[in-house]
């Protein structure tokens, strides 16, 4: 039986409208304003929560919509300007395993979310909160060493660097896989470095702010990462060693106390190499008052075939930019890192995605610029000539390099490592 023409037309129209409805729905879903639970929370949990949570350096917590929503416009501003998350490396040079910078797509998502009203969204879309160990970014330490007693920080004046010694009581050599400094009072601690003080005869060194970088275990300054080495690379703490806490305190107008600690995780499997540290820098700094672009240079030559695991530039408040370049024995070269907008408030480690080969004879050149003019909003006093010094109103030029030596192989020596090597 033939279907009436009107029925055929009605059916065709219904099918067409249904198709349009499906397409429209799909388009609508794709163009729907981002929500916190579906689109923004994954970004915040991945890139912000490690610092923005109770007890960490972030001044506010970002673990829920209720906590994030009041800061929506401020968040948009700092991510568009790439001030947050703090990451100074120019993306055209080097690839880093700890790159915390947001992608352009993530930035666009946050902007669209804010401009769309910063809606919460369906609670069912919310991802699981990040798994973070309270008080530690490296996870629960095998051992924690603390300063033997609180240090009294006066309300004002200049406090010389403090070298505070803590015995390990190790009766055998230990291999450290990760370490993290936990500051007791961030309001008065500018930075801290824990050094491995190996057994010695004679008096202990009392040099302000200085120590052998080969024996550097881990440091703390705003933005600096805990020490977390790739599998097979460690720091060695010899039996009988002490840990020296090199503390830089800055009075803030009120008397305070501090008792800082360091947590250590030991290697649980055979390891291959020790991580070494060297500083490429100079103390020959003499920055004229008002100079907007003072330049300092330094270099270091590898004496053995090596691999660079990471780098970290260090300057003070007048620091403007910093570049690392490696020049190979055949004359070719490449930029390892360029920080075009150095920020003294964020001392960042840049850990290589893949260790960079540095054959014997390779030279690492570091070039730093300083802005001692009034245009530098962080400048303590543009009318002052500035030279090298440990305090924040003075200046430093230090290009840290973390490296391993190709010929070293500890596999046989550490073959029996099983479980936490934490005997004392």
Keywords:
single chain; 424 residues; alpha+beta; 6-stranded mixed sheet; 4-stranded antiparallel sheet; 5 helices; disordered N terminus; disordered C terminus
What is the string of helix and strand elements? Answer: HHHHHEEEEEEEEEEEEEEEEEEEEEE
Mean of pLDDT:
87
Determine the number of helices (DSSP H or I, runs of at least 4 residues).
Answer: 5
Main β sheet profile: 6 strands, mixed
What's the helical proportion of residues?
10-25%
- Radius of gyration equals 27 Å
Based on secondary structure, the structural category is alpha+beta
Number of strands: 22
Name the overall outline: globular
Strand content: 25-35%
Low-confidence stretches: 1-29, 203-212, 419-424
Distance between the termini: 95 Å
Reconstruct the topology from this structure.
Layout: H1 5-31, H2 36-47, H3 65-68, H4 72-80, H5 104-115, E1 143-146, E2 151-153, E3 162-167, E4 174-182, E5 189-197, E6 216-220, E7 227-228, E8 233-237, E9 242-249, E10 256-258, E11 261-266, E12 273-274, E13 276-281, E14 286-287, E15 294-301, E16 306-314, E17 319-327, E18 333-339, E19 350-358, E20 363-370, E21 386-387, E22 398-405
Parallel strand pairs: 8-12
Antiparallel strand pairs: 1-11, 2-10, 3-9, 4-7, 4-8, 4-11, 5-6, 5-9, 13-22, 14-21, 15-20, 16-19, 16-22, 17-18, 17-20
Helix pairs in contact: 2-5, 4-5
What does this structure look like?
The chain is α+β, with helices and mostly antiparallel strands. The chain has 5 helices and 22 strands. Strands 1, 4, 7, 8, 11 and 12 form a 6-stranded mixed β-sheet that branches. Strands 3-9-5-6 form a 4-stranded antiparallel β-sheet, with no helix packed on it. Strand 17 and strand 18 form a beta hairpin. Helix 2 crosses helix 5 and helix 4 packs antiparallel against helix 5. The longest helix has 27 residues.
């Amino acid at each position: 039986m033939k279907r009436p023409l009107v029925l055929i037309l009605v059916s065709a129209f219904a099918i067409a409208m249904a198709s349009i409805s499906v397409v429209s729905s799909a388009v609508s879903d794709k163009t729907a304003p981002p929500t916190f639970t579906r689109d923004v929370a994954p970004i915040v949990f991945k890139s912000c929560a490690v610092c923005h949570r109770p007890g960490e350096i972030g001044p506010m917590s970002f673990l829920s919509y209720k906590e994030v929503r009041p800061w929506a416009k401020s968040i948009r501003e700092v991510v568009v300007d790439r001030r947050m998350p703090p990451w100074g490396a120019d993306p055209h040079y080097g690839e880093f395993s700890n790159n915390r910078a947001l992608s352009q797509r993530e930035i666009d998502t946050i902007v669209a979310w804010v401009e769309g009203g910063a809606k919460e969204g369906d609670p069912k879309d919310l991802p699981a909160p990040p798994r973070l160990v309270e008080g530690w970014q490296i996870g629960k330490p095998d051992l924690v060493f603390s300063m033997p007693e609180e240090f009294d920080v006066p309300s004002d004046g200049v406090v010389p660097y403090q070298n505070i010694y803590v015995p390990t009581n190790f009766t055998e050599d230990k291999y450290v896989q990760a370490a993290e400094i936990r500051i007791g009072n961030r309001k008065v601690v500018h930075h801290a470095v824990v050094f491995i003080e190996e057994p010695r005869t004679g008096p202990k060194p009392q040099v302000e702010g200085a120590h052998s970088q080969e024996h550097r275990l881990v440091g703390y300054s705003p933005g600096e990462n805990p020490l977390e080495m790739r599998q097979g690379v460690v720091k060695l703490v010899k039996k009988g060693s002490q840990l020296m806490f090199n503390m830089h305190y800055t009075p803030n107008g009120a008397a305070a106390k501090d008792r800082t600690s360091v947590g250590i995780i030991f290697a649980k499997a055979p390891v291959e190499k020790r991580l070494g540290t060297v500083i490429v820098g100079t103390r020959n700094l003499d920055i004229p008052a008002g100079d907007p672009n003072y330049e300092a240079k330094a270099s270091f030559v590898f004496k053995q075939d090596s691999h660079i695991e990471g780098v970290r530039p260090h300057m003070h408040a007048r620091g403007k930019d910093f570049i690392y370049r490696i020049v190979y024995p055949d004359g070719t070269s490449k930029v390892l890192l360029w920080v075009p907008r150095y920020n003294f408030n964020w001392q960042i480690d840049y850990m290589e995605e893949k260790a960079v080969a540095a054959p014997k004879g390779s030279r690492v050149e570091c070039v730093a610029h300083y802005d001692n003019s009034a245009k530098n909003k962080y400048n303590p006093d543009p009318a002052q000539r500035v030279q090298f010094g440990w305090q924040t109103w003075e200046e430093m030029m230090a290009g840290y390099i973390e490296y391993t030596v190709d010929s070293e192989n500890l596999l046989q020596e550490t073959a029996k490592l099983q479980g936490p090597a934490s005997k004392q």
